[in-house]
Amino acid sequence: MRYKTRISIDILFKGVFKTTGFLVLALLGGIFAMLVYNSISFFLDIKPLDFITGMEWAPTAKTPKYGMLPLIISTTFVTFGAMIIAIPLGIGTAAFISEYAGSRLKNILKPAIEMLAAIPSVVIGFLGIVVLSPGIANIADLPNGLNALNGAILLAIMALPTIITVAEDAIHAVPNAYKEASYGVGATKWQTLRKVIIPAAAPGIIAAVMLGVGRAIGETMTVLMATGNAALIPTGMFDSVKTMTATIAIEMGEVPYQTTHYYALYAIATVLFFMTLFANLVGEFFINRFRKYHAV
Amino acid sequence: MQYKTNRLSSVIEWGTLLSTTLIVCFFLFVIIWEIVSKGVSSLSLEFVSKVPSAGMTKGGILTPIIGTVLLTLITALFAIPFGVCCAIYLNEYAENNWLTRTIRASIRNLSGVPSIIYGLFGLALFVQALQFGTSLIAAGLTLGLLSLPYIITTTEEALKRIPNSTREAALAVGATKFETIKDVVLPSAMSGILTGVVLTLSRAAGETAPILFTGAAFYINGTTGYLNQEFMALPYHLYMLSTQHQSIDQVRPIAYGTALVLVIVVFLLNLTAFYIRYKYRKNEN
Q1: Same domain, A214 and A160
Q2: Which ipTM was obtained for this model?
Protein backbone atom coordinates (compact mmCIF):
# COMPACT_ATOMS: atom_id res chain seq x y z
CA MET A 1 0.00 0.00 0.00
CA ARG A 2 1.17 3.48 -0.69
CA TYR A 3 2.53 5.44 2.20
CA LYS A 4 -0.05 8.22 1.82
CA THR A 5 -3.02 5.84 1.93
CA ARG A 6 -1.59 4.15 5.02
CA ILE A 7 -1.25 7.48 6.75
CA SER A 8 -4.79 8.54 5.88
CA ILE A 9 -6.16 5.20 7.15
CA ASP A 10 -4.21 5.80 10.34
CA ILE A 11 -5.72 9.27 10.76
CA LEU A 12 -9.21 8.03 9.86
CA PHE A 13 -9.19 5.32 12.52
CA LYS A 14 -7.79 7.62 15.13
CA GLY A 15 -10.88 9.72 14.49
CA VAL A 16 -13.16 6.66 14.74
CA PHE A 17 -11.66 5.57 18.06
CA LYS A 18 -11.86 9.07 19.45
CA THR A 19 -15.50 9.43 18.39
CA THR A 20 -16.49 6.29 20.31
CA GLY A 21 -14.85 7.77 23.40
CA PHE A 22 -16.98 10.88 23.07
CA LEU A 23 -20.11 8.83 22.36
CA VAL A 24 -19.73 7.21 25.79
CA LEU A 25 -19.83 10.68 27.30
CA ALA A 26 -22.88 11.39 25.18
CA LEU A 27 -24.55 8.22 26.48
CA LEU A 28 -24.28 9.26 30.12
CA GLY A 29 -25.26 12.80 29.13
CA GLY A 30 -28.23 11.41 27.20
CA ILE A 31 -29.46 9.32 30.12
CA PHE A 32 -29.11 12.29 32.42
CA ALA A 33 -30.85 14.66 29.99
CA MET A 34 -33.73 12.21 29.51
CA LEU A 35 -34.23 11.92 33.26
CA VAL A 36 -34.04 15.66 33.87
CA TYR A 37 -36.22 16.63 30.90
CA ASN A 38 -39.05 14.27 31.84
CA SER A 39 -38.75 15.11 35.54
CA ILE A 40 -39.14 18.82 34.76
CA SER A 41 -42.31 18.04 32.81
CA PHE A 42 -43.54 16.27 35.94
CA PHE A 43 -42.58 19.03 38.34
CA LEU A 44 -44.56 21.53 36.28
CA ASP A 45 -47.64 19.67 37.52
CA ILE A 46 -46.58 18.49 40.95
CA LYS A 47 -44.47 20.38 43.46
CA PRO A 48 -41.13 18.62 44.10
CA LEU A 49 -41.65 18.82 47.87
CA ASP A 50 -45.08 17.15 47.64
CA PHE A 51 -43.49 14.44 45.49
CA ILE A 52 -40.62 13.65 47.85
CA THR A 53 -42.55 13.93 51.12
CA GLY A 54 -46.02 12.77 49.99
CA MET A 55 -47.24 9.83 52.03
CA GLU A 56 -49.44 8.29 49.37
CA TRP A 57 -48.68 6.79 45.96
CA ALA A 58 -51.97 6.44 44.08
CA PRO A 59 -51.48 7.71 40.52
CA THR A 60 -54.56 5.97 39.15
CA ALA A 61 -56.97 7.17 41.85
CA LYS A 62 -59.74 9.70 41.02
CA THR A 63 -57.65 12.45 42.54
CA PRO A 64 -54.18 11.08 41.74
CA LYS A 65 -51.60 11.24 44.52
CA TYR A 66 -47.92 11.29 43.63
CA GLY A 67 -46.18 10.93 46.98
CA MET A 68 -43.11 8.75 46.57
CA LEU A 69 -42.19 8.44 50.26
CA PRO A 70 -43.69 4.91 50.51
CA LEU A 71 -41.53 3.85 47.55
CA ILE A 72 -38.34 5.39 48.96
CA ILE A 73 -39.01 3.82 52.35
CA SER A 74 -39.77 0.44 50.73
CA THR A 75 -36.51 0.51 48.77
CA THR A 76 -34.53 1.59 51.83
CA PHE A 77 -36.24 -0.99 54.01
CA VAL A 78 -35.57 -3.92 51.69
CA THR A 79 -32.00 -2.79 50.99
CA PHE A 80 -31.32 -2.38 54.71
CA GLY A 81 -32.70 -5.85 55.41
CA ALA A 82 -30.58 -7.30 52.62
CA MET A 83 -27.45 -5.69 54.06
CA ILE A 84 -28.12 -7.04 57.57
CA ILE A 85 -27.96 -10.50 55.99
CA ALA A 86 -25.30 -9.90 53.38
CA ILE A 87 -22.67 -7.89 55.31
CA PRO A 88 -21.77 -10.53 57.96
CA LEU A 89 -22.01 -13.37 55.45
CA GLY A 90 -20.03 -11.46 52.83
CA ILE A 91 -17.21 -10.32 55.11
CA GLY A 92 -17.04 -13.72 56.83
CA THR A 93 -16.79 -15.50 53.50
CA ALA A 94 -14.24 -13.01 52.18
CA ALA A 95 -12.10 -13.45 55.30
CA PHE A 96 -12.39 -17.23 55.09
CA ILE A 97 -11.43 -17.37 51.41
CA SER A 98 -8.54 -14.97 51.84
CA GLU A 99 -7.08 -16.06 55.19
CA TYR A 100 -8.18 -19.60 56.02
CA ALA A 101 -8.92 -21.51 52.81
CA GLY A 102 -6.11 -23.46 51.19
CA SER A 103 -5.40 -22.96 47.52
CA ARG A 104 -7.43 -26.02 46.48
CA LEU A 105 -10.47 -24.87 48.44
CA LYS A 106 -10.01 -21.39 46.97
CA ASN A 107 -10.15 -22.88 43.49
CA ILE A 108 -13.58 -24.28 44.33
CA LEU A 109 -14.98 -21.33 46.28
CA LYS A 110 -14.04 -18.56 43.85
CA PRO A 111 -15.78 -20.12 40.82
CA ALA A 112 -18.76 -20.90 43.08
CA ILE A 113 -19.07 -17.19 43.90
CA GLU A 114 -18.78 -16.37 40.19
CA MET A 115 -21.54 -18.89 39.46
CA LEU A 116 -23.77 -17.21 42.04
CA ALA A 117 -23.08 -13.86 40.36
CA ALA A 118 -23.95 -15.28 36.95
CA ILE A 119 -27.45 -16.46 37.85
CA PRO A 120 -29.96 -14.11 36.19
CA SER A 121 -32.02 -12.00 38.59
CA VAL A 122 -35.28 -13.28 37.10
CA VAL A 123 -34.31 -16.83 38.13
CA ILE A 124 -33.62 -15.69 41.70
CA GLY A 125 -36.97 -13.87 41.71
CA PHE A 126 -38.64 -17.06 40.50
CA LEU A 127 -37.12 -18.99 43.41
CA GLY A 128 -38.42 -16.27 45.72
CA ILE A 129 -41.90 -17.19 44.52
CA VAL A 130 -41.61 -20.98 44.51
CA VAL A 131 -39.24 -21.65 47.45
CA LEU A 132 -38.99 -18.69 49.84
CA SER A 133 -42.59 -17.51 49.67
CA PRO A 134 -44.20 -20.81 50.79
CA GLY A 135 -41.44 -21.19 53.38
CA ILE A 136 -42.04 -17.76 54.91
CA ALA A 137 -45.82 -18.22 54.76
CA ASN A 138 -45.49 -21.49 56.66
CA ILE A 139 -43.18 -20.22 59.38
CA ALA A 140 -44.97 -16.91 59.98
CA ASP A 141 -48.46 -18.28 59.34
CA LEU A 142 -49.30 -15.83 56.54
CA PRO A 143 -51.50 -16.32 53.46
CA ASN A 144 -48.43 -15.78 51.26
CA GLY A 145 -44.77 -15.02 51.72
CA LEU A 146 -44.40 -12.24 49.15
CA ASN A 147 -43.11 -9.49 51.42
CA ALA A 148 -40.15 -7.35 52.47
CA LEU A 149 -38.36 -10.27 54.15
CA ASN A 150 -38.52 -12.33 50.95
CA GLY A 151 -37.15 -9.42 48.91
CA ALA A 152 -34.41 -8.73 51.46
CA ILE A 153 -33.17 -12.33 51.41
CA LEU A 154 -33.14 -12.39 47.59
CA LEU A 155 -31.37 -9.03 47.38
CA ALA A 156 -28.80 -10.29 49.88
CA ILE A 157 -28.09 -13.22 47.54
CA MET A 158 -27.80 -10.80 44.60
CA ALA A 159 -25.43 -8.47 46.50
CA LEU A 160 -23.26 -11.20 48.07
CA PRO A 161 -20.97 -11.90 45.07
CA THR A 162 -20.15 -8.17 44.75
CA ILE A 163 -19.46 -7.80 48.47
CA ILE A 164 -17.40 -10.99 48.70
CA THR A 165 -15.26 -10.24 45.63
CA VAL A 166 -14.44 -6.63 46.55
CA ALA A 167 -13.92 -7.40 50.27
CA GLU A 168 -11.72 -10.39 49.44
CA ASP A 169 -9.54 -8.21 47.20
CA ALA A 170 -9.24 -5.70 50.04
CA ILE A 171 -8.33 -8.30 52.68
CA HIS A 172 -5.90 -9.97 50.29
CA ALA A 173 -4.20 -6.64 49.59
CA VAL A 174 -3.26 -6.02 53.24
CA PRO A 175 0.55 -6.24 53.32
CA ASN A 176 1.98 -9.42 54.83
CA ALA A 177 4.24 -7.34 57.07
CA TYR A 178 1.18 -6.26 59.10
CA LYS A 179 0.24 -9.87 59.78
CA GLU A 180 3.79 -10.90 60.56
CA ALA A 181 4.16 -8.02 63.02
CA SER A 182 0.94 -9.10 64.72
CA TYR A 183 1.97 -12.76 64.93
CA GLY A 184 5.36 -11.61 66.13
CA VAL A 185 3.90 -10.06 69.27
CA GLY A 186 2.02 -13.30 69.98
CA ALA A 187 -1.43 -12.56 68.56
CA THR A 188 -3.53 -15.49 67.38
CA LYS A 189 -4.84 -15.76 63.86
CA TRP A 190 -8.28 -14.55 64.94
CA GLN A 191 -6.88 -11.60 66.89
CA THR A 192 -4.77 -10.68 63.89
CA LEU A 193 -7.79 -10.88 61.62
CA ARG A 194 -10.01 -8.80 63.88
CA LYS A 195 -7.56 -6.25 65.22
CA VAL A 196 -5.14 -5.86 62.31
CA ILE A 197 -6.36 -7.18 58.95
CA ILE A 198 -9.99 -6.05 59.06
CA PRO A 199 -9.15 -2.50 60.28
CA ALA A 200 -6.42 -2.22 57.64
CA ALA A 201 -8.81 -3.43 54.95
CA ALA A 202 -11.71 -1.32 56.30
CA PRO A 203 -11.91 1.20 53.44
CA GLY A 204 -12.01 -1.66 50.94
CA ILE A 205 -14.68 -3.44 52.96
CA ILE A 206 -16.80 -0.29 53.22
CA ALA A 207 -16.43 0.07 49.44
CA ALA A 208 -17.60 -3.53 49.02
CA VAL A 209 -20.68 -2.85 51.14
CA MET A 210 -21.52 0.38 49.29
CA LEU A 211 -21.21 -1.31 45.89
CA GLY A 212 -23.50 -4.05 47.23
CA VAL A 213 -25.96 -1.36 48.38
CA GLY A 214 -25.88 0.24 44.92
CA ARG A 215 -26.58 -3.13 43.36
CA ALA A 216 -29.48 -3.83 45.76
CA ILE A 217 -31.15 -0.43 45.31
CA GLY A 218 -31.12 -0.74 41.52
CA GLU A 219 -32.19 -4.38 41.32
CA THR A 220 -35.58 -4.72 39.65
CA MET A 221 -36.72 -8.25 38.81
CA THR A 222 -36.23 -9.96 42.17
CA VAL A 223 -38.11 -7.32 44.15
CA LEU A 224 -40.75 -7.03 41.46
CA MET A 225 -41.49 -10.75 41.69
CA ALA A 226 -41.05 -11.38 45.42
CA THR A 227 -42.22 -8.40 47.49
CA GLY A 228 -45.97 -8.32 46.77
CA ASN A 229 -45.93 -4.73 45.44
CA ALA A 230 -48.32 -2.90 47.79
CA ALA A 231 -47.49 0.82 47.76
CA LEU A 232 -47.81 1.34 51.52
CA ILE A 233 -45.33 2.45 54.12
CA PRO A 234 -44.04 -0.83 55.59
CA THR A 235 -44.19 -1.35 59.36
CA GLY A 236 -42.43 -4.71 59.54
CA MET A 237 -40.54 -7.32 57.56
CA PHE A 238 -43.74 -9.27 56.88
CA ASP A 239 -45.39 -6.31 55.14
CA SER A 240 -45.65 -6.23 51.39
CA VAL A 241 -43.60 -3.42 49.83
CA LYS A 242 -43.34 -1.75 46.44
CA THR A 243 -39.86 -0.51 45.65
CA MET A 244 -38.99 2.32 43.26
CA THR A 245 -37.66 -0.07 40.62
CA ALA A 246 -40.74 -2.31 40.83
CA THR A 247 -43.06 0.71 40.53
CA ILE A 248 -41.37 1.78 37.30
CA ALA A 249 -41.41 -1.78 35.93
CA ILE A 250 -45.10 -2.35 36.70
CA GLU A 251 -46.56 1.01 35.79
CA MET A 252 -44.52 1.95 32.72
CA GLY A 253 -46.23 -0.80 30.76
CA GLU A 254 -49.73 0.47 31.52
CA VAL A 255 -49.40 4.22 31.58
CA PRO A 256 -50.48 6.42 28.63
CA TYR A 257 -47.65 8.26 26.90
CA GLN A 258 -46.81 11.80 28.12
CA THR A 259 -49.23 12.00 31.00
CA THR A 260 -48.37 13.21 34.51
CA HIS A 261 -48.19 9.60 35.61
CA TYR A 262 -45.76 8.81 32.78
CA TYR A 263 -43.51 11.71 33.77
CA ALA A 264 -43.83 10.69 37.43
CA LEU A 265 -42.12 7.37 36.64
CA TYR A 266 -39.18 9.26 35.13
CA ALA A 267 -39.05 11.42 38.26
CA ILE A 268 -38.80 8.21 40.35
CA ALA A 269 -36.04 7.02 38.03
CA THR A 270 -34.18 10.30 38.61
CA VAL A 271 -34.29 9.80 42.39
CA LEU A 272 -33.20 6.18 41.86
CA PHE A 273 -30.35 7.33 39.62
CA PHE A 274 -29.02 9.69 42.29
CA MET A 275 -29.38 7.12 45.07
CA THR A 276 -27.33 4.51 43.20
CA LEU A 277 -24.89 7.18 42.02
CA PHE A 278 -24.35 8.26 45.63
CA ALA A 279 -23.78 4.67 46.82
CA ASN A 280 -21.33 4.00 43.98
CA LEU A 281 -19.44 7.28 44.48
CA VAL A 282 -19.01 6.58 48.20
CA GLY A 283 -17.81 3.08 47.28
CA GLU A 284 -15.35 4.49 44.76
CA PHE A 285 -14.09 7.07 47.25
CA PHE A 286 -13.20 4.32 49.72
CA ILE A 287 -11.60 2.13 47.05
CA ASN A 288 -9.33 5.03 46.06
CA ARG A 289 -8.48 5.69 49.70
CA PHE A 290 -7.65 2.05 50.13
CA ARG A 291 -5.39 2.04 47.06
CA LYS A 292 -3.58 5.13 48.31
CA TYR A 293 -2.74 3.50 51.65
CA HIS A 294 -1.69 0.16 50.29
CA ALA A 295 -0.03 1.14 47.04
CA VAL A 296 2.90 -1.20 46.54
CA MET B 1 -5.34 -17.46 78.80
CA GLN B 2 -4.46 -21.09 78.84
CA TYR B 3 -3.13 -22.62 75.68
CA LYS B 4 -5.93 -25.22 75.60
CA THR B 5 -8.83 -22.72 75.72
CA ASN B 6 -6.93 -20.79 73.13
CA ARG B 7 -6.98 -23.76 70.84
CA LEU B 8 -10.67 -24.38 71.46
CA SER B 9 -11.58 -20.78 70.71
CA SER B 10 -9.55 -20.84 67.53
CA VAL B 11 -11.60 -23.82 66.39
CA ILE B 12 -14.80 -21.89 67.16
CA GLU B 13 -13.49 -18.87 65.27
CA TRP B 14 -12.54 -20.98 62.29
CA GLY B 15 -15.99 -22.60 62.47
CA THR B 16 -17.74 -19.21 62.46
CA LEU B 17 -16.04 -18.11 59.28
CA LEU B 18 -16.49 -21.52 57.71
CA SER B 19 -20.22 -21.45 58.47
CA THR B 20 -20.70 -18.06 56.76
CA THR B 21 -18.98 -19.52 53.70
CA LEU B 22 -21.12 -22.64 53.89
CA ILE B 23 -24.32 -20.55 54.07
CA VAL B 24 -23.31 -18.71 50.88
CA CYS B 25 -22.56 -22.05 49.19
CA PHE B 26 -25.89 -23.35 50.50
CA PHE B 27 -27.71 -20.50 48.70
CA LEU B 28 -26.03 -21.49 45.45
CA PHE B 29 -26.78 -25.16 46.06
CA VAL B 30 -30.49 -24.51 46.77
CA ILE B 31 -30.85 -22.37 43.64
CA ILE B 32 -29.22 -24.95 41.38
CA TRP B 33 -30.84 -27.97 43.06
CA GLU B 34 -34.34 -26.49 42.88
CA ILE B 35 -34.01 -25.48 39.22
CA VAL B 36 -32.32 -28.69 38.07
CA SER B 37 -34.40 -31.20 40.07
CA LYS B 38 -37.75 -29.68 39.09
CA GLY B 39 -36.80 -28.44 35.64
CA VAL B 40 -35.20 -31.57 34.29
CA SER B 41 -38.52 -33.41 33.90
CA SER B 42 -39.85 -30.81 31.46
CA LEU B 43 -36.58 -30.74 29.54
CA SER B 44 -36.72 -32.68 26.29
CA LEU B 45 -35.85 -32.27 22.66
CA GLU B 46 -39.46 -31.40 22.06
CA PHE B 47 -39.37 -28.70 24.75
CA VAL B 48 -36.57 -26.79 23.03
CA SER B 49 -37.77 -27.40 19.48
CA LYS B 50 -41.50 -26.66 19.64
CA VAL B 51 -43.28 -23.34 19.81
CA PRO B 52 -45.61 -22.61 22.76
CA SER B 53 -49.18 -23.74 22.20
CA ALA B 54 -52.59 -23.86 23.90
CA GLY B 55 -52.17 -20.51 25.66
CA MET B 56 -48.59 -21.48 26.55
CA THR B 57 -49.79 -24.37 28.75
CA LYS B 58 -48.38 -26.86 26.23
CA GLY B 59 -45.61 -27.05 23.70
CA GLY B 60 -42.04 -25.88 24.05
CA ILE B 61 -40.08 -22.68 24.28
CA LEU B 62 -38.56 -22.44 20.81
CA THR B 63 -39.89 -18.91 20.21
CA PRO B 64 -38.29 -17.42 23.35
CA ILE B 65 -35.04 -19.30 22.64
CA ILE B 66 -34.84 -17.81 19.14
CA GLY B 67 -35.70 -14.41 20.58
CA THR B 68 -32.93 -14.56 23.18
CA VAL B 69 -30.35 -15.77 20.62
CA LEU B 70 -31.20 -12.96 18.17
CA LEU B 71 -31.34 -10.40 20.95
CA THR B 72 -27.90 -11.39 22.22
CA LEU B 73 -26.59 -11.31 18.63
CA ILE B 74 -27.78 -7.71 18.14
CA THR B 75 -26.31 -6.76 21.51
CA ALA B 76 -22.98 -8.28 20.45
CA LEU B 77 -22.96 -6.66 16.99
CA PHE B 78 -23.57 -3.26 18.51
CA ALA B 79 -21.62 -3.36 21.77
CA ILE B 80 -18.45 -5.23 20.72
CA PRO B 81 -17.18 -2.89 17.97
CA PHE B 82 -18.29 0.19 19.88
CA GLY B 83 -16.82 -0.98 23.19
CA VAL B 84 -13.54 -2.27 21.74
CA CYS B 85 -12.97 0.96 19.76
CA CYS B 86 -13.59 3.02 22.88
CA ALA B 87 -11.18 0.86 24.91
CA ILE B 88 -8.55 1.25 22.16
CA TYR B 89 -8.98 5.01 22.29
CA LEU B 90 -8.63 5.10 26.07
CA ASN B 91 -5.64 2.78 26.28
CA GLU B 92 -3.71 3.58 23.08
CA TYR B 93 -4.49 7.19 22.19
CA ALA B 94 -5.92 9.18 25.07
CA GLU B 95 -3.61 11.41 27.05
CA ASN B 96 -4.02 11.62 30.77
CA ASN B 97 -5.99 14.87 30.92
CA TRP B 98 -9.31 16.02 32.36
CA LEU B 99 -11.23 14.88 29.28
CA THR B 100 -9.95 11.30 29.52
CA ARG B 101 -10.59 11.27 33.25
CA THR B 102 -14.16 12.46 32.61
CA ILE B 103 -14.71 9.69 30.05
CA ARG B 104 -13.39 7.09 32.50
CA ALA B 105 -15.55 8.46 35.32
CA SER B 106 -18.64 8.31 33.13
CA ILE B 107 -17.89 4.69 32.18
CA ARG B 108 -17.69 3.81 35.89
CA ASN B 109 -20.96 5.63 36.51
CA LEU B 110 -22.64 3.95 33.55
CA SER B 111 -21.79 0.51 34.94
CA GLY B 112 -23.58 1.48 38.16
CA VAL B 113 -26.76 2.77 36.50
CA PRO B 114 -29.65 0.38 37.32
CA SER B 115 -30.77 -1.74 34.37
CA ILE B 116 -34.35 -0.45 34.61
CA ILE B 117 -33.06 3.06 33.82
CA TYR B 118 -31.39 1.68 30.67
CA GLY B 119 -34.85 0.31 29.87
CA LEU B 120 -36.37 3.80 30.21
CA PHE B 121 -33.57 5.27 28.10
CA GLY B 122 -34.12 2.64 25.41
CA LEU B 123 -37.82 3.43 25.47
CA ALA B 124 -37.21 7.17 25.10
CA LEU B 125 -34.40 6.92 22.52
CA PHE B 126 -35.01 3.87 20.32
CA VAL B 127 -38.72 3.22 20.70
CA GLN B 128 -39.98 6.79 20.71
CA ALA B 129 -37.39 9.31 19.44
CA LEU B 130 -35.94 7.09 16.66
CA GLN B 131 -39.36 5.56 15.94
CA PHE B 132 -38.21 1.92 16.02
CA GLY B 133 -41.29 1.02 18.04
CA THR B 134 -41.23 -1.82 20.59
CA SER B 135 -39.06 -4.21 18.62
CA LEU B 136 -36.21 -6.67 18.60
CA ILE B 137 -33.79 -4.02 17.36
CA ALA B 138 -34.80 -1.49 20.05
CA ALA B 139 -34.37 -4.06 22.83
CA GLY B 140 -31.10 -5.37 21.39
CA LEU B 141 -29.62 -1.86 21.19
CA THR B 142 -30.81 -1.13 24.74
CA LEU B 143 -28.99 -4.23 26.00
CA GLY B 144 -26.02 -3.14 23.89
CA LEU B 145 -25.84 0.18 25.74
CA LEU B 146 -26.11 -1.65 29.06
CA SER B 147 -23.22 -3.94 28.06
CA LEU B 148 -20.92 -1.15 26.83
CA PRO B 149 -19.24 -0.17 30.11
CA TYR B 150 -18.36 -3.80 30.92
CA ILE B 151 -16.93 -4.46 27.45
CA ILE B 152 -14.88 -1.25 27.57
CA THR B 153 -13.49 -2.03 31.05
CA THR B 154 -12.55 -5.64 30.34
CA THR B 155 -11.09 -4.80 26.91
CA GLU B 156 -8.96 -2.06 28.40
CA GLU B 157 -7.69 -4.48 31.05
CA ALA B 158 -6.70 -6.89 28.27
CA LEU B 159 -4.95 -4.13 26.29
CA LYS B 160 -3.05 -2.99 29.39
CA ARG B 161 -1.48 -6.43 29.73
CA ILE B 162 0.27 -6.11 26.36
CA PRO B 163 3.78 -4.79 27.10
CA ASN B 164 4.81 -1.52 25.49
CA SER B 165 7.87 -3.16 23.96
CA THR B 166 5.54 -5.09 21.65
CA ARG B 167 4.09 -1.85 20.32
CA GLU B 168 7.50 -0.22 20.02
CA ALA B 169 8.83 -3.16 18.00
CA ALA B 170 6.02 -2.81 15.46
CA LEU B 171 6.39 0.95 15.25
CA ALA B 172 10.15 0.59 14.82
CA VAL B 173 9.80 -1.54 11.67
CA GLY B 174 7.65 1.18 10.14
CA ALA B 175 4.09 0.22 10.94
CA THR B 176 1.65 3.07 11.52
CA LYS B 177 -0.08 3.29 14.87
CA PHE B 178 -3.29 1.83 13.43
CA GLU B 179 -1.39 -1.06 11.83
CA THR B 180 0.36 -1.72 15.13
CA ILE B 181 -2.99 -1.91 16.92
CA LYS B 182 -4.69 -3.99 14.22
CA ASP B 183 -1.89 -6.48 13.51
CA VAL B 184 -0.01 -6.67 16.81
CA VAL B 185 -1.87 -5.36 19.83
CA LEU B 186 -5.39 -6.67 19.12
CA PRO B 187 -4.32 -10.22 18.16
CA SER B 188 -2.26 -10.60 21.33
CA ALA B 189 -5.05 -9.20 23.50
CA MET B 190 -7.73 -11.25 21.72
CA SER B 191 -8.31 -13.94 24.34
CA GLY B 192 -8.57 -11.38 27.13
CA ILE B 193 -11.06 -9.35 25.10
CA LEU B 194 -13.08 -12.46 24.22
CA THR B 195 -13.32 -13.51 27.87
CA GLY B 196 -14.79 -10.14 28.80
CA VAL B 197 -17.12 -10.10 25.82
CA VAL B 198 -18.55 -13.57 26.50
CA LEU B 199 -19.07 -12.82 30.21
CA THR B 200 -20.83 -9.57 29.33
CA LEU B 201 -23.08 -11.29 26.80
CA SER B 202 -24.04 -13.94 29.35
CA ARG B 203 -25.20 -11.12 31.62
CA ALA B 204 -27.11 -9.45 28.81
CA ALA B 205 -28.83 -12.72 27.84
CA GLY B 206 -30.28 -13.02 31.35
CA GLU B 207 -31.41 -9.39 31.72
CA THR B 208 -35.13 -8.74 31.95
CA ALA B 209 -35.70 -5.17 33.16
CA PRO B 210 -34.27 -3.39 30.07
CA ILE B 211 -36.46 -5.35 27.65
CA LEU B 212 -39.72 -4.94 29.61
CA PHE B 213 -40.79 -1.82 27.70
CA THR B 214 -38.57 -2.00 24.65
CA GLY B 215 -40.01 -5.01 22.86
CA ALA B 216 -40.44 -8.21 24.86
CA ALA B 217 -43.86 -9.70 24.17
CA PHE B 218 -46.16 -11.90 26.22
CA TYR B 219 -46.82 -14.21 23.29
CA ILE B 220 -45.93 -14.27 19.61
CA ASN B 221 -47.87 -16.47 17.28
CA GLY B 222 -46.11 -17.94 14.29
CA THR B 223 -42.90 -16.62 12.80
CA THR B 224 -40.54 -14.58 14.86
CA GLY B 225 -37.24 -12.84 14.31
CA TYR B 226 -38.17 -9.70 12.43
CA LEU B 227 -36.05 -6.79 13.56
CA ASN B 228 -38.95 -4.37 13.64
CA GLN B 229 -41.36 -6.59 15.56
CA GLU B 230 -41.81 -7.63 19.15
CA PHE B 231 -40.23 -10.88 20.31
CA MET B 232 -40.30 -13.44 23.09
CA ALA B 233 -37.20 -13.89 25.28
CA LEU B 234 -36.28 -16.54 27.86
CA PRO B 235 -35.98 -14.27 30.93
CA TYR B 236 -39.18 -12.40 30.13
CA HIS B 237 -40.94 -15.69 29.41
CA LEU B 238 -39.96 -16.95 32.88
CA TYR B 239 -41.14 -13.73 34.52
CA MET B 240 -44.42 -13.86 32.65
CA LEU B 241 -45.07 -17.57 33.33
CA SER B 242 -44.40 -17.16 37.04
CA THR B 243 -46.35 -13.96 37.72
CA GLN B 244 -48.60 -12.88 34.83
CA HIS B 245 -50.05 -16.02 33.29
CA GLN B 246 -53.73 -16.71 34.01
CA SER B 247 -53.16 -20.30 35.15
CA ILE B 248 -49.88 -20.05 37.00
CA ASP B 249 -50.03 -23.50 38.63
CA GLN B 250 -50.63 -25.22 35.33
CA VAL B 251 -47.61 -23.65 33.64
CA ARG B 252 -45.26 -24.13 36.59
CA PRO B 253 -43.43 -27.11 34.97
CA ILE B 254 -42.84 -24.99 31.86
CA ALA B 255 -41.57 -22.16 34.09
CA TYR B 256 -39.08 -24.55 35.74
CA GLY B 257 -38.01 -25.82 32.33
CA THR B 258 -37.52 -22.26 31.06
CA ALA B 259 -35.48 -21.37 34.17
CA LEU B 260 -33.29 -24.43 33.64
CA VAL B 261 -32.68 -23.63 29.97
CA LEU B 262 -31.85 -20.02 30.85
CA VAL B 263 -29.41 -21.09 33.58
CA ILE B 264 -27.79 -23.62 31.22
CA VAL B 265 -27.35 -20.95 28.52
CA VAL B 266 -25.77 -18.53 31.00
CA PHE B 267 -23.49 -21.17 32.54
CA LEU B 268 -22.37 -22.42 29.12
CA LEU B 269 -21.37 -18.87 28.16
CA ASN B 270 -19.52 -18.53 31.48
CA LEU B 271 -17.73 -21.85 30.95
CA THR B 272 -16.67 -20.67 27.49
CA ALA B 273 -15.19 -17.56 29.07
CA PHE B 274 -13.36 -19.58 31.73
CA TYR B 275 -12.02 -21.91 29.06
CA ILE B 276 -10.67 -19.01 26.99
CA ARG B 277 -9.09 -17.48 30.10
CA TYR B 278 -7.59 -20.82 31.13
CA LYS B 279 -6.06 -21.42 27.71
CA TYR B 280 -4.76 -17.89 27.60
CA ARG B 281 -3.06 -18.17 30.99
CA LYS B 282 -1.49 -21.46 29.94
CA ASN B 283 -0.13 -19.95 26.74
CA GLU B 284 1.19 -16.97 28.66
CA ASN B 285 3.26 -19.21 30.90
Answers
A1: yes
A2: 0.91
